[in-house]
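Throughout our pipeline, every protein is held as a single compact record rather than as scattered files. The record that follows is passed on verbatim for readers who wish to inspect the format:
___
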Amino acid sequence: MRLPASNFPTSACWLVSLLAGFSLLAPPARASEYYRHVIFDNSLTPDAYFYSRGTSNGPSYLEVRNKKSRLPVDTTTFVTPPNALRLQWESRPGGGWVAEVRLQGHRNRNPELIGHNLYFWCFAPSAIAAGDLPQIVLSDATEGLQVAELPASFTAPLPLGTYTGAIPAGRWVQARIPLADFPTASIYQFRPQFLQDVVFHQGRPDGVRHTLIIDEIRVDDDHPEEQSSSLSVPEGVRAIGYDRHVVVRWDPVNSPTLARYIIYRSFDGRVFEPAGMQPAGTERYSDFLGKAEITAQYRVAAADWHYRTSALSQPASASTRDFDDDELLTMLEEACFHYYWEGADAQSGMARESIPGDDRIVATGASGMGIAALIVGADRGFITRVQAVERLTRIVNFLEHAQRYHGAWSHYMDGSTGKTMAVFGMFDDGGDLVETSFLMEGLLAARQYFRGPSDAERDLYRRITQLWEAVEWDWYRGPHRNEFLYWHWSPEWEWQIQHPLIGFNEVMITYLLGIASPTHAIPASTYYSGWASQAQRAVQYRQGWSGITDGIHYRNGHSYYGIKLDVGVGTGGPLFFTHYSFFGFDPHSLHDRFTSSYFLNNRSLALINRAYCIADPKHFKGYGADAWGLTASDGPDGYVPYAPDDTSDCGTLTPTGALASFPYTPEASMAALKHYYRDLGGEMWDIYGPRDAFNAGADWISPIYMGLNQAPIVAMVENYRTGLVWKNFMANPEIGTMLRQLDAVTADSRAVPSALRDKQPRSRHAKAQARSTCARRPVCAAAATAR
């Protein structure tokens, strides 16, 4: 049941819920705070809610959807648009039912919830007596009631009707339950701040089928009523129509009491209904309409935290229309670019690891890719050149004062202080040479692009040069200055993480930049002795993370799906191998003893990835000629470097895999773009472009965006269109010198021991197990879902 537009400004419960309902559009600076309150606001999938589970036994009944027994989603009756959860049950003697709503997890999320009360909204199509309502149990274990993680705990059940009374027909009622009322029922004390699961289960067995719509479950405190000044009407509302969606923009309302903006939509110019909202600080809204040739009008109101709203703005109108391919690419680049513009850390300008996530964390490598996106944004006119220089100057200011370790930055830093954040454990508290390489790849491209006559650009050139020359690549050869580069070094733990960089994978750029360094260069021969090493240690390393023998001597030489692969382990691994080192470095420019062109080799990797998805040997739902791109992303079971092989394919597709491959597979990538946008855009498209990933068989869509995935789309699409980032990175004179050094080493027959130079694998396996060399993240265990 939607509330009519005329009731919207005065409906407190609808407005507070609306804020939660569009939480994924919240300004990144407020995302962590928001997700320390919300348990459920809405489902990204319209049929069943992924983060739920329902079971029934005996003669009792509970409505569930799909093989995973998810709770159904109601798209017609809700408080937080566009949907709510539906509980439909029948409680009978001798039976039981349980409906669990789990906390939606985000990587690096602060786990502590803030608040002393549990709130949620209830709606019953037919009245339900208080005694016939379910009971509620809370759990701080990720397994819900099946506590297996000690010292996890759960509570004794409380009757919902005690707190709501009878639920009348056709009216929303808010439940408010003090968390202190939930007594511990486990041997361990229940910790409400670590709440993981809200469980509804059978109450009185009355033998009647009931339906209860539940929406906006959150932990919070009562907000005190305060007087606030009236809010100004938003001005400058304008709407821009795209192929299948409309972007609405407006000027900010400058008021300390502003909490959010409410966006109203009309298709007839007369009746405006609320379509969504944006929290204070975000003056842009994406409305996916799904078709071309649709005209919609929009009005915007400002609202405070007590649900008082301004008058509606003047209307703005826009129409969708069919875009040609070039327009679609510009649309895609612009949307993804905004992750690094609006979504960047406010103080440092650096890219966040993920949105939503822990807002303190900025990512070094993702920031280098984000700098490439800034170049594209300035060149395409998404922002002015002056704006780009100002942002890049802020980033350089931050990097100059951030903690460094022999010139290298850590993987993650605090965006406010520049201090290292050891996200991967206590040993990961120092320099990360690989993430530093991705950062420097972006900085060197920017150094050449922003090489204008202004004082600001000349200053940037000088300061980026200083950062570049301060990286001690030779230090990271390890304590014995051996043949490999090493990923990490810590002043506390020294070389405790002994992770050598051995290819082929995403870290080629580290060797290339190390050789190119004008101040701390490594020998060009380390390309063969380290990166493409034939030593037993390197062979064992490649086989260790892949589990197979194809390509363990760096050269592959086999064909997969009729496509020959010169270099790569097994079927090639995740597609970020072809993106991260090559968003700046042009693979056309590189050849070695193992392949005549890394551009062609990367193309083969992309084509094999697509061919695998077409063949779909594990019969996952949603794969096809226009639905491919196995690469690293969050999935239903956490972060996984998905790849085209039996072990690393779990049914999750990541749009950046296909879209960042535009230079290699333009026609296939364009088909994927049209499918992900036009066919799936209602669920997949938002203010930063396509969402991070989806798994059609699991009915799952990623609730986050990742800094490592949106920027490669921007940079690689532009490299396909104009070569912009490639041209500027390759224009650095040190890169040309490095390539000449590599050519000399490649031509030197003494660079590689003759006994190993052309050695081929002795056997060939039908299955590959290529994963990221990082080897620091969980592996998917999801079962295949048949078509």
